[in-house]
Design brief:
Distance between the termini: 41 Å
Strand content: 25-35%
CATH topology: OB fold (Dihydrolipoamide Acetyltransferase, E2P)
Shape: globular
Number of helices: 4
Number of domains: 1
CATH architecture: Beta Barrel
CATH superfamily: Protein of unknown function (DUF3299)
Number of strands: 7
CATH class: Mainly Beta
Length: 197
């Protein structure tokens, strides 16, 4: 394992959870309307699926930095066995990242980036929802508690991988494993729509 790989992983790790794409926040549109003096119109469906931010998916007492305190990567050579152990520990920590059990069974909507997994003809049936652009495709995946595995019978056409979307559904805390990443959450989506600013 090259040190550069660990440094890249460590950089992503140290930035977590500040890896959200700028502007992709659930409250953005509401704040904009309130600031402009308009009254936000909330549909029945929106009211039935309140907005949840990504940070709510992470238990408050989870500190992923704790196991790596005191680890000085810069003082190690590429072949240092401590680096290999740290990478393995990091991967396990990310895959086993704990979920927020209080969200189990909650109806909600969340904004994120869609990573397509399975299409039925032109209709998207299965995807990962992630908090930042490029996750699981151009960049390493976030921790499992920042990935939602989504299945849907809703009509989801003409939405491509890495497009920002709103997903409405009931969240579950069952893990799922795909070829791209392990997710800590699953959801059966009732509605998927492009994110609008």
């Amino acid at each position: 394992m090259k040190k550069i790989t660990l440094v890249l992983i460590a950089a992503l790790f140290l930035l977590f959870p500040a890896t959200r794409a700028p502007g992709l926040t659930a409250g953005h549109e509401r704040e904009k309307k309130e600031n402009s003096g308009e009254k936000a119109q909330i549909s029945e469906q929106d009211a039935a699926y309140p907005v949840v931010e990504w940070d709510a998916l992470v238990p408050e007492d989870w500190n992923p930095r704790l196991p790596f305190e005191g680890l000085d990567i810069n003082s190690m050579e590429d072949n240092d066995p401590r680096l290999a152990r740290a990478v393995e520990q990091f991967k396990k920590l990310w895959d086993d990242a704990p979920v927020n059990a209080a969200l189990k069974g909650k109806s909600l909507r969340i904004a994120g980036f869609l990573v397509a997994l399975d299409y039925e003809e032109q209709n998207l049936k299965e995807f990962l929802l992630v908090p930042y652009f490029g996750a699981c495709i151009h960049a390493p995946p976030p921790p499992a508690n920042q990935i939602i595995y989504v299945t849907t019978t809703a009509n989801v056409e003409d939405i491509l991988s890495m497009e920002p979307v709103w997903v409405y559904g009931v969240l579950d805390t069952d893990p799922a494993e795909t070829e791209l990443a392990k997710s800590g959450y699953t959801m059966e989506a009732v509605k998927v729509e492009r994110y609008q600013r």
